[in-house]
Write a structure and sequence with these properties.
The structure is a homotetramer.
Chain A (H helix, E strand, L loop, with lengths): L14 H20 L6 H8 L3 H7 L3 H26 L3 H18 L1 H10 L8 H25 L8 H19 L5 H16 L1
Helix pairs in contact in A: 1-2, 1-4, 1-6, 4-5, 4-7, 5-6, 5-7, 5-8, 5-9, 6-8, 7-8, 8-9
Chain B binds a DNA duplex through helix 1 and helix 3.
Amino acid sequence: MAIASAARAAGKQKKSERTRQLLLDAALRIIGRKGYTSATVDEIVKEAGVSKGVAYYHFKSKAEMATGVLDAGLGNMAAEFKRIVEEASDAPGALMAMLEFFAAELYDNREFAHFLMTELWRDGRVWSEAMRDRLQELIDIITAQIARGVEEGSLRSTLDPQFSAVSVVGMVVTDAMYYTDLLAKQSFIDHIRAFAHHALS
Amino acid sequence: MAIASAARAAGKQKKSERTRQLLLDAALRIIGRKGYTSATVDEIVKEAGVSKGVAYYHFKSKAEMATGVLDAGLGNMAAEFKRIVEEASDAPGALMAMLEFFAAELYDNREFAHFLMTELWRDGRVWSEAMRDRLQELIDIITAQIARGVEEGSLRSTLDPQFSAVSVVGMVVTDAMYYTDLLAKQSFIDHIRAFAHHALS
Amino acid sequence: MAIASAARAAGKQKKSERTRQLLLDAALRIIGRKGYTSATVDEIVKEAGVSKGVAYYHFKSKAEMATGVLDAGLGNMAAEFKRIVEEASDAPGALMAMLEFFAAELYDNREFAHFLMTELWRDGRVWSEAMRDRLQELIDIITAQIARGVEEGSLRSTLDPQFSAVSVVGMVVTDAMYYTDLLAKQSFIDHIRAFAHHALS
Amino acid sequence: MAIASAARAAGKQKKSERTRQLLLDAALRIIGRKGYTSATVDEIVKEAGVSKGVAYYHFKSKAEMATGVLDAGLGNMAAEFKRIVEEASDAPGALMAMLEFFAAELYDNREFAHFLMTELWRDGRVWSEAMRDRLQELIDIITAQIARGVEEGSLRSTLDPQFSAVSVVGMVVTDAMYYTDLLAKQSFIDHIRAFAHHALS
DNA sequence: CATGAATGAGAATTCATTCAT
DNA sequence: CATGAATGAATTCTCATTCAT
């Protein structure tokens, strides 16, 4: 359920899969900390505790490692968003649940927030197209719930659903990077909830 | 002769200063477009139309060029923020004027917004400390106005001034990067105003 | 299989070590010929017949290559000096044997003598501290034998052991650089012996 | 009389000549400290307190500055050596006087000693040929006096005049670099005299 | 004579990727 | 599957020299 969780179950997987996870986790940490271009494959394999040869056995290139990280992270989030939407009784409930989950995830994975912020909007990256689609998927899910809330009358009618969705995402990512060291997790989530509540209702 | 030589000196000064500015402008464009690490000094000097040597005559390193760009940009913004606060009659007026200015600036300088997003929070950069202070200055100014509005009763009392300031900044920067190509400038600003109005009031 | 893989590892080890040695040898020749600063890494790797990349795989920097050269050279000499001292029956015998060895070494490795002369006393070099210690070790060994000779009465009592040691070393290095092309090896050594004999006895 | 003395009389010279001297003095210090290749023209002109333009007005190139320094220094020494030989009554007297002067000069101008040691024997320098001739002149003068002493019977007959001259020069230069910080000037000179006396008599 | 900005060739270093073992 | 040495293109930075003012 969490971004880096797969590795925890690695004991049961074959060694190959485990190595792959070690590399993805290491890539998340290193790239999240230093940015894609500044991160070196040497650092990543050292952090993962494997040789460079295996890294290139599992991934065709450094870019593919990065893609793998974002893909896994955003994929998990999209899945959870969908689950939340299905289970929620109304739009505001779905929105708040998604926000809470999103905020909690980014709080726990500051490096992933970093990664998102610093690399996703960048041109000239092999993965940017595909990854933007991944993020767009998240935004679309949020947008749909806002639109639904507006239609239902549970959210204020003047809201532009997509603009609001992007704004809320930007807000959460920024706050996560700013407040991870300054607020406790629950307090952080409460702040997010309160602010979003007023912005949307 | 004093006058003539002063004029000569001024002319030189101006030419030298102009070169420096050409480099800063070029650095903003290239780094904003590709990120600090991917941008090369070769590209920057080519964009500026000067030789590589002058770049290192005016700036000690590539990092110093980048620092110069962020410093100038954030410095300008802080100055304008202060001017706005002085001239505004009340807190909500100051906030909306600052937001409008901030949104307009980022809309016009998507590259700067990009640069801000991608490089500011990164570890291991020589400038991150100084630049974070610069950004903090902006946030502090906004925070102060929100606090004032809360005290005056013109903004809702449950707002956490600093958290709200950070959220609003994050929202504007993110929206600017997302919507520069999708919305006209005035429409973009209107969206920002509307969203912020509800979030804060 | 353990044996086979150990052999494989040894083979690799040897190949890697051989590359390192090729680089040290090439660095000695090039730096000895042109001086540290004028020598380029390009020249060194070309002389060694390897790529520039490996040079930086084996050595962190050009300075470290140079350190490696001096370290190995002075280390060998110190080892031989110690061996000579152990085997010699008296101080004059030890001194003459060391001198002969030292002269022969420098005669054969004019480039090393050059390197020693031109780089060792220079400020602002990363290695100068460590390398001065290395040279000091040689001087200390010679000093100790002169002191012993003075005590035993086999060398003249007015000698200042350390000053004499430094003088003799300076003399041999200078002569080596001057006479390598002008005198045959044995004749060179004989000259050194004769001069030192009179200076010390 | 001293190597860097010309500048002291600069007040009476025209400004142009004074500037030239400032540059030579600065070049001696900087190159003596860091070596020819590591020393930069920027450092030299900064040390001299003049602009880069004037430096290239007075000297065609960096190499010419260095040549100027060595030329002046060795020229002064050769002149003094000749004066000493003329005034001395016998060979040993001339030799001791020259040695004393040489030792005193190098003690006072450690940077010049450095310069001599690190740059003179180096290949690939524009000035090395001419400068070697300059140094050779000094060695020749010493050699001639040793030869005279051997003929006269005031020095031991087994001495090889030139080899002895080179050895003594190497000894003094090395000792100067080693002992400038460790011995007082007079003590340093006494040690040199004593050692040379025994080596030659 | 003086200044200091500008030039550009070249030097050190990095790093994604390959490949022999 | 695994290792880690090797490659070489790309990148940052330096610096002697020139030249407009």
